[in-house]
Amino acid sequence: MAELNEALRFDPSFGDAYLELAKLRERAGDLGEAERVYEQAARLPSARAQALFGRARVSKARGQADEAFRALEASVELAPERQSLELLAEWYVQRRAWPAALVAWRRVLSTYDDEPGPERDKVRVRIQALVVLAADADPVVAGAAHSRGWVRRSLARMAKKPR
Q1: Three-class DSSP category at 85
Q2: pLDDT digits 0-9 by tens, 15-48
Q3: Which pTM does this prediction carry?
């Protein structure tokens, strides 16, 4: 921690140092300080997405669910990486926001491209379960057979196609 603080004293724009310091504080259980450091890192464009992701975890651990959710959504909007997308999808499931969870899990699946494996298969099973839970609220599948629009029919066909 001393080395990271020293690095930040020399260069207050060193985003990676803020992120590492915040992670150390988070692991040490000093959640208030971790949140403060993540806030500092979020002011730097190079570290903003990762800082928001970290702040989301810390806010959730501190019982600030709404704040955590906003931070995570902002992080995903800036940098839709698999790890943050998966966490967002899980949080949507916890909130029983089935359509939003379905969209998020579909985004997670898109990060796998042609990468086979058990993790990808788990994501596909989650999507299948969420299609059932979302039912008519799923804009991709719901009413596709009765739709006259080619976009909806195409999306439904792609959603059903095995990958």
Answers
A1: helix
A2: 888 898 999 999 999 999 999 999 999 999 999 9
A3: 0.76
